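Chain and backbone:
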Amino acid sequence: MKKLGRLFSGVHDFTSEEARQLLHNKFVVVIGDSNYRAIYKDLVYILQTDELLTLSQLKQKDGEFFENDRQVEFNGSHSRNDYRLVHQYRTRHHLVRFYFITRVYSTYTESILNDFRADLEADLVPDVVILNSCLWDLNRYHDDVPTEPPVPKAIREYCENAEKLFQALDNILPSSCLIIWVTALPIRENAHGYVIQVGGSVAFLG
């Protein structure tokens, strides 16, 4: 903990008032998995209070409203590739939206891009887009009858899909929009899970 304290000693501890000023009249979009849902919750919460999120708030079920936000879409198919969740927090001067995705580029991602197009037509321009997708891509999309090694195939498709996404974002969003791609979190030393599971076997990326 002492090492962490030294590491973050120079990090500014933002207040709710500062957050509201920084994001005044801003449209922020967060796209990703459950880790990015937590980022969305952090943003929504700090816009309303100086308190930190509680563990129970972070674990709050997806089908529920969160701190005065609105659930735009939810299909309830948790842990499946077709999982859909969209939440939005909106006030007179702030707009924060969250999309849960299970793949960096898919037909569902295309629907999100269509949302961006509709927003732009309504003069609603995203100012910041924070996004990531990785572990679901590598772990959840494998052929029942593989025609090539699953791990290299997953990585190749991931890179191809990431390129598709960024090309689409570049074509749709104006240059004024700040796009923040966050790399996948490191795997802890005592992790009990897997990175890629194919059938009954487990593969780890070295």
The first strand starts at residue 26 and ends at 32. The chain has a mean pLDDT of 84.
